[in-house]
What does this fold into?
Amino acid sequence: MAIVIIDKETCIGCGLCVEDCSRKAIKLDSNEKAEVNLELCNECSHCVAVCPQASVSMPEYDESEILELSKDNLNLDPENFLYFLKFRRSIRQFKNKEVEKDKLDKIIEAGRYSPTASNRQLNRYIVIKDKLNEVREMALKALYNMAKDPNFEMKGGVDYRPMWIQMYEDFKEKNIDRLFFNAPEIIVIVSENKSGFEKVDAGLAASRMELQANLLGLGVCYIGFFERAVNYNNEIKKLMGMKENEEFLISFVLGYPNVKYQRTANRKKADVRFI
Ligand SMILES: Cc1cc2nc3c(=O)[nH]c(=O)nc-3n(C[C@H](O)[C@H](O)[C@H](O)COP(=O)(O)O)c2cc1C
It folds into this structure.
């Protein structure tokens, strides 16, 4: 259970936290001061964020990292932002260059600040770098074995078996990496299977991490094949240090792009229904 402290000396009883609390965990007491029912709180910390008096604190969190509102820093131009989103591309060609730690930290931070169902914040991040060669070899072998496995059932419409066999052979014979594209790092989001929305939580985090990476000059490609490999061969989970109760949710390769796109790609028209 969270600890939420209201400084009754500075609370002016404006009720903004009461209004904004999604769990209706806050009310004004007989002295018109905010009062929290901790049993109902989901630690979303909106009360901390909305209070004009900075009267609310949650001492279990590192409050030194809380940022004060600065309108200048939120001044993103919507047209530019959409243009930027349209220019986002999956990157499959990378420079032989490492990702700096401070950039990686910012990318993880973008994931950390994404929304999660019921504010559970169960995403955990595994950065594969030192063990990348081992992981790649095992994953490519797992895809190959899956393709050759008569008991394996291919789901999802496309039969990737010929591609997986070719990927493994290309790797073995020509050292061509069609799984991770020689990216210097892979980020995997895992979590305990608890909320029922794990995949959504991880997808949202990954998407924001991708955009943050793009802004830092880095490129990303989600690797669904890696998840298939990991779920086929438990040894890869062990190599990645995944815990027994953790589920592999999403992965992407990360590095400096060695390709430049001159224009946006085609997209199908949006299927939108107004009701
Ligand atoms: C969940 C997911 C899994 C993906 N898995 C792979 C993959 O295993 N290998 C790959 O080369 N691209 C993969 N992609 C990238 C898609 O192929 C790519 O997003 C799509 O072709 C559109 O290209 P764009 O991202 O440049 O717009 C994946 C994308 C998503 C969202």
